[in-house]
Amino acid sequence: MSRGILVAVTDAAIDKIKQMILSGELAPGARLPKEADLAERLGLSRNSLREAVRALALINVLDVRQGDGTYVTSLEPGLLLDTLSFVLDLHRDDTVIQFFEVRRILEPAATAMAAELMSDDDIAELRAILDDLPADPTIEQLVQNDLRFHHRIARGSGNSVLCSFVESLAGPTQRARIWRGLTQEGALEKTIEQHTAIYDAIAARQPEVARSWATIHIAGVEQWLRRV
């Protein structure tokens, strides 16, 4: 069998398993029938079924447990979007501005939602992250604190898909954050000032103010990157 035909057959097998999941016949956590039974039922060869299962396991749709069987995963957005994180980590440096453009669209929305939905305990956690930054931090400490701060807000949005997208964008933009911290005068002070303004707006339950500060914060890094 030529490679082109093999790929087409595997794609067909993937689609048939996908349809079983979409129809509810295979629910999250469900165990797939035995390989021989499933292959016969779907009209597939066992080899093409095996290739389809392997491909779906790579993108966290299926979980192959040696000696136990193959199961549908939880299908949670964070799990399924792990593959996206891997792809984003392969970006070229000349695309990093585009990642900041996407951050500028998504994160202000997440921040506004967080201002409405975060509990008092959640907001206290956010404050603790700010307070955890040393008085004279290294660039690495500043960037790690920045990542924790934004991740906590994304989780506070209450939207797991949005949170997963925001967290996926962290990797491709991390080097630019470090570079800015090393080269832009006043980057530390500006970051702390804007983080505090975002926190204050969230704590005051002012979603549109929180959205505005998040936009200013991300757009500032983006503008700096365009200049340099």
Features:
disordered N terminus; elongated; 2 strands; mainly alpha; Four Helix Bundle (Hemerythrin (Met), subunit A); 228 residues; Arc Repressor Mutant, subunit A; two-stranded antiparallel sheet; 2 domains
- Fill in the CATH topology of the largest domain: Four Helix Bundle (Hemerythrin (Met), subunit A)
* Structural Rg: 22 Å
**What's the name of the CATH homologous superfamily of the largest domain?**
GntR ligand-binding domain-like
CATH class of the largest domain: Mainly Alpha
Assembly type of the chains comes to: single chain
- What does the largest sheet look like? 2 strands, antiparallel
Number of domains: 2
Distance between the termini: 53 Å
Number of helices, where a helix is a run of at least 4 consecutive DSSP H or I residues: 12
- Global geometry: elongated
- Return the structural class: mainly alpha
CATH architecture of the largest domain: Up-down Bundle
GO molecular function, one term: DNA-binding transcription factor activity
Keywords: DNA-binding, Transcription, Transcription regulation
Domain HTH gntR-type: 7-75
Protein name: DNA-binding FadR family transcriptional regulator
